[in-house]
Design brief:
By secondary structure, the protein is an alpha/beta fold. It is built from 11 helices and 11 strands.
Length: about 300
């Protein structure tokens, strides 16, 4: 059974003539008869009762005509729908991202999205999570991907959707005394090791402090650095050890620039990466397509 056979069948019914159906479809009458015969064979039914030059449609033929019209209506609708989607896939999408999400999660997702939707103009703003939530709230960003602050709660205008999990890892340089250890115990963080912290008030700093408090650990020597990259470089140069977000160290661990050592009970500390959007508003086409791409490309290891 083919779409063309259904079109031919519907034309015969509507024209009440094999000859006129052939003219309408710019076909030979013999081809029309062949297509009707093929349909009858496919469905194992008789569609028309022929009486000389005239014919009448059978009950099976009437049933097929009804459904064939619906099928052809859907098929004929496809080109317009495709054109509509092409129009919708043009425009501007403004995204917000916390520094961590913007630097380490979004880049491969943005690359894939641009490959699929090359005509979409993307604008990405990075900064503190609170600022990105405000952008969504006041309409200067369509969506935002940020690490969740435990003080945030859902509100009438903003929706938080968990997307991924942010965990901590203990990192040291390749030549560090702990580098060959299979596991490190919390109390070993006290003593000769300089502990490299992120800036006060950052989400990662809060996670690290929660862990240290939970394990009753107070580092004796602390070095504060501004962001994830400077922390990694400092550890790499042997300036100290650090607890840092796992999502930002994949490259350095793979290349051997840093060593990730299991730390007892560290897996108990985590937070969510969340997608921020307007609560009382359905996604438009660009937003929906981005969310689908984002969710499909989040690495399984950190997927919420």
């Amino acid at each position: 059974m083919t779409i063309q056979q259904l079109r031919t069948f519907c034309s015969v019914v509507e024209e009440k003539s094999f000859h006129r159906a052939a003219e309408r479809l710019y076909m030979a009458q013999a081809s029309v008869s062949q297509q009707i015969a093929a349909l009858e064979k496919y469905y194992s039914v008789i569609l028309f009762i022929r009486n000389g030059r005239s014919f009448s449609i059978t009950p099976e033929g009437l049933f097929l005509y009804k459904w064939a019209k619906e099928i052809l209506s859907l098929v004929d609708m496809v080109p317009d729908k495709i054109k509509e989607l092409h129009k919708q896939s043009e425009g501007k999408l403004v995204l917000g991202a916390s520094t961590l999400a913007g630097n380490y999660i979004l880049p491969p997702i943005l690359k894939k999205y641009k490959e699929i939707y090359p005509k979409v103009e993307l604008s990405v703003h990075t900064g503190y999570g609170n600022e990105m939530v405000d952008r969504v709230r006041n309409g200067t960003a369509n969506l935002a991907l940020v690490g969740k602050n435990l003080n945030w709660v859902n509100e009438p205008n903003v929706k938080f959707q968990p997307i991924a999990i942010d965990k901590l890892s203990l990192i040291v340089s390749r030549g560090h005394p702990l580098a060959e250890r299979e596991i490190v115990y919390p109390q070993e963080l006290v003593g000769p090791h300089t502990f490299i912290h992120s800036r006060p008030g950052s989400a990662m700093r809060s996670m690290v402090e929660d862990y240290l408090k939970q394990e009753n650990v107070t580092p004796e020597s602390i070095l504060e650095m501004g962001n994830h990259e400077t922390i990694k470089r400092a550890v790499e140069q042997g300036l100290g050890i650090a607890l840092i977000s796992t999502v930002c160290i994949a490259h350095e661990i793979a290349t051997g620039q840093l060593v990730n050592i299991p730390l007892l009970n560290l897996n108990k500390i985590s937070r969510q990466f969340i997608l921020v959007s307007k609560r009382m508003q359905e996604y438009n086409y660009l937003e929906k397509s981005f969310v689908d791409t984002l969710i499909s490309l989040i690495p399984p290891a950190i997927k919420a």
